[in-house]
Amino acid sequence: MSRKPTLAVVGATGAVGTVMLQILSQHADIWGEIRLVASPRSAGRKLAVRGAEVEVLALGEEVFDGVDIALFDVPDDVSAQWAPIATAKGVVVVDNSAAFRMDPDVPLVVPEVNPHAARVRPRGIVANPNCTTLSMIVAIGALHAEFGLRELIVSSYQAVSGAGRDGVDTLRRQLSLVAGGELGTSPGDVRRAVGDDTGPFPAPVALNVVPWAGSLKDDGWSSEEMKVRDESRKILGLPALRVAATCVRVPVITTHSLTVHARFEDEVTVDRAREILATAPGVVLFDDPAAGEFPTPADVVGTDPTWVGRVRRALDDPTALELFVCGDNLRKGAALNTVQIAELVAAEFTV
Ligand SMILES: NC(=O)c1ccc[n+]([C@@H]2O[C@H](COP(=O)([O-])OP(=O)(O)OC[C@H]3O[C@@H](n4cnc5c(N)ncnc54)[C@H](OP(=O)(O)O)[C@@H]3O)[C@@H](O)[C@H]2O)c1
After folding, report:
1. pLDDT tens across 268-281, in order?
2. CA distance linking residue 203 with residue 141, whole number of Å
3. Quick check: CB of 328 below 6 Å from ligand 1?
4. Is the pTM of this model over 0.90?
5. Is the Cβ–Cβ distance between 246 and 155 less than 8 Å?
6. Band of the pLDDT at 336, cuts 50, 70, 90?
7. 19 has binding-site annotation
8. CA 76 – CA 212 distance, rounded (Å)
9. Strands (E), the chain
10. pLDDT score for 27
11. Residues labelled as active-site residues
Protein backbone atom coordinates (compact mmCIF):
# COMPACT_ATOMS: atom_id res chain seq x y z
CA MET A 1 0.00 0.00 0.00
CA SER A 2 1.37 3.46 -0.78
CA ARG A 3 -0.96 6.25 0.22
CA LYS A 4 -1.32 8.86 2.91
CA PRO A 5 -2.91 7.19 5.95
CA THR A 6 -6.04 8.59 7.59
CA LEU A 7 -5.56 9.65 11.20
CA ALA A 8 -8.08 10.11 14.02
CA VAL A 9 -7.24 12.10 17.18
CA VAL A 10 -9.55 10.93 19.97
CA GLY A 11 -9.54 13.44 22.85
CA ALA A 12 -8.57 16.32 20.56
CA THR A 13 -9.98 18.94 22.97
CA GLY A 14 -7.94 17.92 26.05
CA ALA A 15 -4.58 19.10 27.44
CA VAL A 16 -2.66 16.46 25.48
CA GLY A 17 -4.96 16.64 22.43
CA THR A 18 -4.41 20.40 22.10
CA VAL A 19 -0.63 19.97 21.98
CA MET A 20 -1.07 17.02 19.62
CA LEU A 21 -2.83 19.27 17.09
CA GLN A 22 0.02 21.82 17.32
CA ILE A 23 2.62 19.09 16.72
CA LEU A 24 0.67 17.61 13.79
CA SER A 25 0.60 21.12 12.32
CA GLN A 26 4.38 21.54 12.76
CA HIS A 27 5.66 18.13 11.60
CA ALA A 28 6.03 17.04 7.96
CA ASP A 29 2.48 16.40 6.77
CA ILE A 30 2.37 12.67 6.07
CA TRP A 31 -1.36 12.30 6.72
CA GLY A 32 -4.39 12.15 4.47
CA GLU A 33 -7.54 13.14 6.37
CA ILE A 34 -7.15 14.05 10.07
CA ARG A 35 -10.37 13.41 11.96
CA LEU A 36 -10.92 15.05 15.37
CA VAL A 37 -12.97 13.28 18.03
CA ALA A 38 -13.97 14.05 21.65
CA SER A 39 -16.94 13.54 23.94
CA PRO A 40 -20.47 14.54 22.85
CA ARG A 41 -19.94 17.72 24.94
CA SER A 42 -17.50 18.98 22.31
CA ALA A 43 -19.25 17.78 19.14
CA GLY A 44 -19.49 20.58 16.58
CA ARG A 45 -16.62 22.64 18.05
CA LYS A 46 -14.03 23.66 15.47
CA LEU A 47 -10.31 23.21 16.15
CA ALA A 48 -7.34 24.27 14.01
CA VAL A 49 -5.00 21.65 12.62
CA ARG A 50 -2.61 22.04 9.64
CA GLY A 51 -3.94 25.59 9.22
CA ALA A 52 -7.56 24.53 8.67
CA GLU A 53 -10.61 24.46 10.94
CA VAL A 54 -11.86 20.93 11.53
CA GLU A 55 -15.17 20.07 13.21
CA VAL A 56 -15.00 17.81 16.29
CA LEU A 57 -17.02 14.58 16.07
CA ALA A 58 -18.61 12.81 19.05
CA LEU A 59 -16.94 9.47 19.83
CA GLY A 60 -18.92 6.61 18.25
CA GLU A 61 -18.16 3.49 16.21
CA GLU A 62 -18.64 5.27 12.88
CA VAL A 63 -15.80 7.77 13.50
CA PHE A 64 -13.32 4.92 12.92
CA ASP A 65 -14.63 4.02 9.45
CA GLY A 66 -11.76 4.37 6.95
CA VAL A 67 -9.25 5.33 9.68
CA ASP A 68 -5.76 3.74 9.58
CA ILE A 69 -4.26 5.03 12.83
CA ALA A 70 -6.04 6.53 15.87
CA LEU A 71 -4.30 8.45 18.63
CA PHE A 72 -6.18 8.11 21.94
CA ASP A 73 -5.74 11.00 24.43
CA VAL A 74 -8.68 10.19 26.70
CA PRO A 75 -9.14 8.89 30.28
CA ASP A 76 -8.19 5.26 30.99
CA ASP A 77 -11.77 3.95 31.05
CA VAL A 78 -12.60 5.57 27.70
CA SER A 79 -9.49 4.01 26.10
CA ALA A 80 -10.23 0.62 27.67
CA GLN A 81 -13.72 0.66 26.17
CA TRP A 82 -13.07 2.24 22.76
CA ALA A 83 -9.60 1.11 21.65
CA PRO A 84 -10.81 -2.50 21.08
CA ILE A 85 -13.77 -1.13 19.09
CA ALA A 86 -11.33 0.78 16.86
CA THR A 87 -8.92 -2.16 16.43
CA ALA A 88 -11.84 -4.45 15.51
CA LYS A 89 -12.27 -2.13 12.50
CA GLY A 90 -8.60 -2.60 11.54
CA VAL A 91 -7.39 0.67 13.08
CA VAL A 92 -3.94 0.75 14.74
CA VAL A 93 -4.41 2.52 18.08
CA VAL A 94 -1.63 4.51 19.75
CA ASP A 95 -2.90 4.98 23.29
CA ASN A 96 -1.77 7.63 25.76
CA SER A 97 -3.71 6.31 28.75
CA ALA A 98 -2.59 3.74 31.31
CA ALA A 99 -5.20 1.20 30.13
CA PHE A 100 -2.86 -1.06 28.11
CA ARG A 101 0.69 -0.10 29.09
CA MET A 102 1.46 -3.21 31.11
CA ASP A 103 -0.44 -5.65 28.84
CA PRO A 104 2.20 -8.14 27.62
CA ASP A 105 0.55 -8.08 24.17
CA VAL A 106 0.88 -4.29 23.88
CA PRO A 107 4.30 -2.75 23.18
CA LEU A 108 5.29 0.31 25.24
CA VAL A 109 7.34 2.44 22.90
CA VAL A 110 9.79 5.34 23.04
CA PRO A 111 11.12 5.77 19.48
CA GLU A 112 14.63 6.80 20.60
CA VAL A 113 14.92 3.75 22.90
CA ASN A 114 12.92 0.76 21.56
CA PRO A 115 11.47 1.66 18.12
CA HIS A 116 11.55 -2.00 16.98
CA ALA A 117 8.86 -2.83 19.57
CA ALA A 118 6.24 -0.79 17.66
CA ARG A 119 6.20 -3.35 14.83
CA VAL A 120 4.87 -6.20 16.99
CA ARG A 121 1.25 -5.39 17.91
CA PRO A 122 -0.73 -8.54 18.77
CA ARG A 123 -3.73 -6.45 19.88
CA GLY A 124 -3.35 -3.72 17.26
CA ILE A 125 -2.44 -1.29 20.07
CA VAL A 126 0.80 0.52 20.87
CA ALA A 127 0.98 2.20 24.29
CA ASN A 128 2.61 5.51 25.07
CA PRO A 129 4.42 5.64 28.44
CA ASN A 130 3.34 7.90 31.27
CA CYS A 131 4.69 11.45 31.28
CA THR A 132 6.98 11.08 34.31
CA THR A 133 8.75 8.02 32.87
CA LEU A 134 8.96 9.68 29.45
CA SER A 135 10.47 12.86 30.87
CA MET A 136 13.67 10.96 31.79
CA ILE A 137 13.78 7.71 29.82
CA VAL A 138 15.40 9.02 26.60
CA ALA A 139 18.44 10.20 28.57
CA ILE A 140 18.48 7.09 30.76
CA GLY A 141 18.15 4.82 27.71
CA ALA A 142 21.22 6.42 26.10
CA LEU A 143 23.28 5.95 29.27
CA HIS A 144 22.01 2.37 29.67
CA ALA A 145 23.15 1.48 26.14
CA GLU A 146 26.72 2.39 27.13
CA PHE A 147 27.00 1.56 30.83
CA GLY A 148 24.28 -1.08 31.55
CA LEU A 149 21.71 0.21 34.03
CA ARG A 150 21.29 -1.56 37.40
CA GLU A 151 19.21 0.80 39.56
CA LEU A 152 17.23 4.05 39.43
CA ILE A 153 16.34 6.21 42.42
CA VAL A 154 14.28 9.19 41.28
CA SER A 155 12.30 12.05 42.75
CA SER A 156 9.93 13.92 40.48
CA TYR A 157 8.87 17.56 40.54
CA GLN A 158 5.72 17.27 38.46
CA ALA A 159 3.79 20.02 36.70
CA VAL A 160 0.06 20.46 37.25
CA SER A 161 -0.80 19.90 33.57
CA GLY A 162 0.10 16.25 34.21
CA ALA A 163 -3.36 16.18 35.80
CA GLY A 164 -5.00 17.55 32.62
CA ARG A 165 -6.92 20.79 32.08
CA ASP A 166 -8.38 20.52 35.57
CA GLY A 167 -4.87 20.61 37.07
CA VAL A 168 -3.94 23.77 35.16
CA ASP A 169 -7.23 25.50 36.02
CA THR A 170 -6.73 24.63 39.70
CA LEU A 171 -3.21 26.11 39.94
CA ARG A 172 -4.17 29.27 38.05
CA ARG A 173 -7.22 29.79 40.31
CA GLN A 174 -5.14 29.21 43.45
CA LEU A 175 -2.36 31.56 42.26
CA SER A 176 -4.90 34.36 41.83
CA LEU A 177 -6.19 33.71 45.38
CA VAL A 178 -2.73 33.81 47.04
CA ALA A 179 -1.08 36.56 44.95
CA GLY A 180 0.17 39.73 46.54
CA GLY A 181 -0.43 38.79 50.19
CA GLU A 182 1.69 37.66 53.10
CA LEU A 183 0.63 34.02 52.89
CA GLY A 184 2.96 31.10 53.56
CA THR A 185 3.96 32.27 57.03
CA SER A 186 1.68 30.30 59.36
CA PRO A 187 0.22 26.76 59.30
CA GLY A 188 -2.96 26.55 57.25
CA ASP A 189 -2.95 30.12 55.90
CA VAL A 190 -2.55 28.93 52.29
CA ARG A 191 -5.26 26.28 52.77
CA ARG A 192 -7.72 28.87 54.10
CA ALA A 193 -6.96 31.23 51.20
CA VAL A 194 -7.51 28.66 48.45
CA GLY A 195 -10.55 27.02 50.09
CA ASP A 196 -11.64 23.40 50.33
CA ASP A 197 -11.73 22.71 46.59
CA THR A 198 -8.15 21.69 45.77
CA GLY A 199 -9.10 20.24 42.36
CA PRO A 200 -7.31 17.02 41.38
CA PHE A 201 -4.68 17.51 44.13
CA PRO A 202 -4.91 16.38 47.79
CA ALA A 203 -3.52 19.70 49.10
CA PRO A 204 -3.04 23.28 47.86
CA VAL A 205 -0.43 23.36 45.10
CA ALA A 206 0.13 27.15 44.97
CA LEU A 207 2.96 28.20 47.36
CA ASN A 208 3.38 24.52 48.18
CA VAL A 209 4.77 21.13 47.12
CA VAL A 210 2.58 18.04 47.39
CA PRO A 211 4.28 14.63 47.82
CA TRP A 212 1.57 12.77 45.96
CA ALA A 213 0.55 11.99 42.35
CA GLY A 214 -1.99 9.38 41.32
CA SER A 215 -3.92 6.92 43.46
CA LEU A 216 -2.96 4.83 46.51
CA LYS A 217 -1.44 1.42 45.79
CA ASP A 218 -0.06 -1.29 48.11
CA ASP A 219 2.21 -0.38 51.02
CA GLY A 220 1.86 3.39 50.62
CA TRP A 221 3.19 3.69 47.05
CA SER A 222 1.30 5.90 44.58
CA SER A 223 0.17 4.72 41.15
CA GLU A 224 2.50 7.28 39.55
CA GLU A 225 5.49 5.84 41.43
CA MET A 226 4.56 2.30 40.38
CA LYS A 227 4.25 3.45 36.75
CA VAL A 228 7.80 4.86 36.80
CA ARG A 229 9.05 1.48 38.02
CA ASP A 230 6.96 -0.82 35.84
CA GLU A 231 7.23 1.24 32.66
CA SER A 232 11.00 1.87 32.93
CA ARG A 233 11.50 -1.88 33.25
CA LYS A 234 9.32 -2.65 30.24
CA ILE A 235 10.76 0.03 27.91
CA LEU A 236 14.38 -0.84 28.73
CA GLY A 237 13.70 -4.59 28.66
CA LEU A 238 15.07 -4.94 32.21
CA PRO A 239 12.36 -6.80 34.17
CA ALA A 240 14.46 -6.96 37.35
CA LEU A 241 15.65 -3.32 37.32
CA ARG A 242 15.66 -1.86 40.85
CA VAL A 243 13.59 1.33 40.86
CA ALA A 244 12.49 3.59 43.72
CA ALA A 245 10.46 6.70 42.83
CA THR A 246 8.94 9.47 44.93
CA CYS A 247 6.52 11.61 42.92
CA VAL A 248 5.89 15.19 43.99
CA ARG A 249 3.60 17.86 42.52
CA VAL A 250 5.00 21.40 42.30
CA PRO A 251 3.45 24.74 41.26
CA VAL A 252 4.65 24.57 37.63
CA ILE A 253 2.15 24.66 34.75
CA THR A 254 3.96 22.37 32.28
CA THR A 255 7.30 20.46 32.29
CA HIS A 256 8.20 17.71 34.69
CA SER A 257 11.61 17.66 36.36
CA LEU A 258 13.34 14.73 38.02
CA THR A 259 16.43 14.13 40.09
CA VAL A 260 17.92 10.78 39.07
CA HIS A 261 20.45 8.57 40.85
CA ALA A 262 21.36 5.96 38.22
CA ARG A 263 23.62 3.06 39.16
CA PHE A 264 25.35 1.06 36.42
CA GLU A 265 27.20 -2.26 36.06
CA ASP A 266 30.68 -0.78 36.04
CA GLU A 267 32.48 2.39 36.97
CA VAL A 268 31.31 5.48 35.07
CA THR A 269 33.04 8.72 34.21
CA VAL A 270 31.35 12.08 33.98
CA ASP A 271 33.27 12.89 30.79
CA ARG A 272 31.93 9.82 28.96
CA ALA A 273 28.43 10.38 30.33
CA ARG A 274 28.52 13.95 29.05
CA GLU A 275 29.69 12.78 25.61
CA ILE A 276 26.82 10.31 25.42
CA LEU A 277 24.22 12.85 26.54
CA ALA A 278 25.58 15.55 24.22
CA THR A 279 25.15 13.31 21.16
CA ALA A 280 22.07 11.22 22.03
CA PRO A 281 19.09 11.93 19.73
CA GLY A 282 16.34 13.79 21.59
CA VAL A 283 18.63 14.90 24.46
CA VAL A 284 20.14 18.31 25.18
CA LEU A 285 23.01 18.52 27.66
CA PHE A 286 22.77 21.91 29.39
CA ASP A 287 25.22 21.71 32.23
CA ASP A 288 27.48 24.54 33.28
CA PRO A 289 26.66 25.45 36.87
CA ALA A 290 29.52 27.96 37.03
CA ALA A 291 27.68 29.93 34.34
CA GLY A 292 24.32 29.34 36.00
CA GLU A 293 23.35 26.88 33.24
CA PHE A 294 21.04 24.01 34.11
CA PRO A 295 17.56 23.15 32.84
CA THR A 296 14.51 24.62 34.57
CA PRO A 297 10.86 24.02 33.64
CA ALA A 298 10.32 27.72 32.88
CA ASP A 299 12.97 27.52 30.13
CA VAL A 300 12.24 24.01 28.86
CA VAL A 301 8.45 24.30 28.46
CA GLY A 302 7.31 24.17 24.84
CA THR A 303 10.46 22.38 23.61
CA ASP A 304 10.81 18.80 22.38
CA PRO A 305 14.02 17.34 23.89
CA THR A 306 14.86 15.88 27.26
CA TRP A 307 17.15 18.43 28.91
CA VAL A 308 19.87 17.18 31.26
CA GLY A 309 22.04 19.13 33.70
CA ARG A 310 23.87 18.78 37.02
CA VAL A 311 25.70 15.67 35.77
CA ARG A 312 27.87 14.37 38.61
CA ARG A 313 29.42 11.07 39.65
CA ALA A 314 28.04 9.91 43.01
CA LEU A 315 30.48 10.81 45.75
CA ASP A 316 30.17 7.44 47.45
CA ASP A 317 29.67 5.12 44.46
CA PRO A 318 31.89 5.24 41.33
CA THR A 319 29.25 3.24 39.40
CA ALA A 320 26.49 5.85 39.86
CA LEU A 321 25.56 9.17 38.25
CA GLU A 322 23.41 12.00 39.61
CA LEU A 323 21.38 13.99 37.07
CA PHE A 324 18.70 16.68 36.93
CA VAL A 325 16.34 16.14 33.99
CA CYS A 326 13.51 18.29 32.58
CA GLY A 327 11.00 17.38 29.86
CA ASP A 328 7.79 19.00 28.65
CA ASN A 329 5.17 16.55 29.92
CA LEU A 330 2.67 17.50 27.22
CA ARG A 331 5.18 17.28 24.34
CA LYS A 332 7.75 14.45 24.75
CA GLY A 333 5.85 13.33 27.86
CA ALA A 334 2.67 12.72 25.87
CA ALA A 335 1.72 14.21 22.49
CA LEU A 336 5.13 14.25 20.79
CA ASN A 337 6.01 10.65 21.68
CA THR A 338 2.57 9.54 20.50
CA VAL A 339 2.98 11.35 17.17
CA GLN A 340 6.49 9.85 16.79
CA ILE A 341 5.04 6.35 17.32
CA ALA A 342 2.26 7.09 14.82
CA GLU A 343 4.88 8.24 12.29
CA LEU A 344 6.78 4.96 12.77
CA VAL A 345 3.58 2.99 12.12
CA ALA A 346 2.61 5.26 9.20
CA ALA A 347 5.90 4.41 7.49
CA GLU A 348 4.56 0.83 7.18
CA PHE A 349 1.70 2.19 5.04
CA THR A 350 3.99 3.94 2.61
CA VAL A 351 6.67 1.29 1.89
N1 LIG B 1 -1.47 15.56 30.87
C2 LIG B 1 -0.39 14.82 30.76
O3 LIG B 1 0.76 15.28 31.04
C4 LIG B 1 -0.46 13.42 30.24
C5 LIG B 1 0.72 12.80 29.91
C6 LIG B 1 0.70 11.48 29.43
C7 LIG B 1 -0.51 10.85 29.32
N8 LIG B 1 -1.67 11.47 29.66
C9 LIG B 1 -2.90 10.71 29.49
O10 LIG B 1 -3.55 11.19 28.30
C11 LIG B 1 -4.96 11.09 28.46
C12 LIG B 1 -5.58 12.48 28.26
O13 LIG B 1 -5.07 13.33 29.28
P14 LIG B 1 -5.33 14.92 29.28
O15 LIG B 1 -4.40 15.41 30.34
O16 LIG B 1 -5.29 15.48 27.92
O17 LIG B 1 -6.86 14.97 29.84
P18 LIG B 1 -7.93 16.14 29.70
O19 LIG B 1 -7.27 17.45 29.52
O20 LIG B 1 -8.86 15.96 30.84
O21 LIG B 1 -8.70 15.78 28.32
C22 LIG B 1 -9.50 14.61 28.21
C23 LIG B 1 -9.97 14.42 26.77
O24 LIG B 1 -10.73 13.22 26.72
C25 LIG B 1 -12.03 13.52 26.18
N26 LIG B 1 -13.03 12.66 26.80
C27 LIG B 1 -13.32 12.54 28.12
N28 LIG B 1 -14.33 11.66 28.30
C29 LIG B 1 -14.68 11.21 27.06
C30 LIG B 1 -15.66 10.31 26.57
N31 LIG B 1 -16.48 9.66 27.40
N32 LIG B 1 -15.74 10.11 25.23
C33 LIG B 1 -14.92 10.75 24.39
N34 LIG B 1 -13.96 11.64 24.79
C35 LIG B 1 -13.85 11.87 26.11
C36 LIG B 1 -12.26 14.97 26.51
O37 LIG B 1 -13.25 15.49 25.62
P38 LIG B 1 -14.20 16.75 26.07
O39 LIG B 1 -13.35 17.97 25.94
O40 LIG B 1 -15.28 16.68 25.07
O41 LIG B 1 -14.62 16.46 27.49
C42 LIG B 1 -10.87 15.54 26.25
O43 LIG B 1 -10.67 15.71 24.86
C44 LIG B 1 -5.19 10.51 29.86
O45 LIG B 1 -5.32 9.10 29.77
C46 LIG B 1 -3.92 10.87 30.58
O47 LIG B 1 -3.65 10.01 31.67
C48 LIG B 1 -1.68 12.75 30.10
Report:
1. 999 999 999 999 99
2. 34
3. no
4. yes
5. yes
6. very high
7. no
8. 19
9. 7-10, 34-38, 46-49, 52-58, 69-72, 92-95, 125-127, 149-158, 242-249, 256-264, 283-285, 306-313, 320-327
10. 96
11. 131, 256
pLDDT tens digit sequence for 164-186: 999 999 999 999 999 988 999 99
Please give the Cα distance from 237 to 3 (Å, whole number): 34
Q: Are 324 and 308 in contact (CB under 8 A)?
A: yes
**CA dist 105 to 108, 122, 132, 255, 257, Å?**
10, 6, 23, 30, 31
What SS3 string covers 141-176?
HHHHHHHCEEEEEEEEEECHHHHHHHHHHHHHHHHH
- Ligand 1 centroid–CA 39 distance in Å is 10
Tell me: the pLDDT tens digits for 66-101?
999 999 999 999 999 999 999 999 999 999 999 999
Atom index in ligand 1 nearest the CA of residue 76 equals 45
Amino acid at 105: D
Domains with residue ranges and CATH for the chain: 7-128+335-347 (3.40.50.720), 133-159+211-327 (3.30.360.10)
- Residue 350: predicted pLDDT: 72
Report whether pLDDT(2) > 90: no
Question: Quick one: DSSP state of residue 91?
Answer: P
